[in-house]
Amino acid sequence: MKFPIYRLLILFFFFFSCVDRKQRPKESRSDPAFHFFEKSKQTENMAKKLIFLDSALADITKPGDTLKALIYDHLIYYNYLNKEFDSAIYFSDLLVEDGLERKDTLQIAKGYYRKAKSFFYQNDRINELKNTFQSQRYYILANDSINAGKRWLELSIAQTRLGDFPGSQNSAVKALSLLEHSKDSFYIASTYNNLAATYRKLNDLDESIQEYNHALRFVNSRRDSLIVLNNIANTYATKKEFDKALNIFELILPLANERNSINRIKDNYYFTKWLSGESIASDSLKSVMISRSANNDLTGLLASYDHLVEVNEKDSPEKALQYAKAYYETAQKLNSVTDEISALTYLVRLSPSNKIKAYALENIRLNDSLINSRDNVKNLFAKINYDEEKKL
For a Cys-Cys bond, which of 156, 269, 291, 305 suits 249, CB 3.0-4.6 Å? Predict the structure, then answer.
């Protein structure tokens, strides 16, 4: 059964805006650099925006001009939108260098954070983690514990994604210690939700439910409450406490008012009924899959295909094979390695003999890649901790 951490992950990164819209030069200006910067904000044409920003940067002559950092930040943002991530990394480095020159610790922290996001978009997890860690260090130096805590939450989520669950738990605890005075409870709820996910992956299901209940105390919207309650119900289903799981699904389904949320709860509800031994309408899970496809909910489709394979594997193996192929293709689109591995496991079981070898070899390759990434992450954090201890 799919636990929808991806959903919270998407929400989490959405809340981190790429450009600080409130940041403005301190004084009114009429010089060419400021003129071009303002023109970049007035046009909707992306190519023109970049030309104006480049012109603004070229016309800065005053050492230590704070407008330079603002231009770098806009260039990073628009290169994100253009998926020009190498350029975004380049300007992130310049943002860090400018911060070092002006001894602006918060700017340095922001530069490393922008760089980490570029590596995140490129699926370069090691460099993402390195730069996120650097960002939190400078936020700590600037006495900004809230942003430091947010970076630790990102580190924890990244470690969960790579399967380093004990490491993720350590990072989550650090995040909570820094976020305890935050007025924005979203990040605290996200930290507890991720912590609960790691306990579930480690099969410590009672602890997982306890952490989900902690998350419930901090969620501040119906949408997020339903996500956490759905996770609790799924965990009860994993414990084979099906009555508790089904009761929660039946309680929250009438409260859902968004298509993706309704589909998520319905899919898990029908699948849990099937796990419990109850008969379900043959098209119930399929109808959710069709709705998710129409709504372009690719993350939701991963769960639908996974469930449809399991439900059909015994009695309709040909149907199950088609769903396994769709599961694999969708996982590839989303670059979800763990789902690719799950789909390939199904394909090895269900495919004709002449296809099995290719799927098995790809499964081995992806597993090795995931293990290497996990080991690299553990080694990275071991080195980070060693370097930090030497400073004491």
Answer: 269
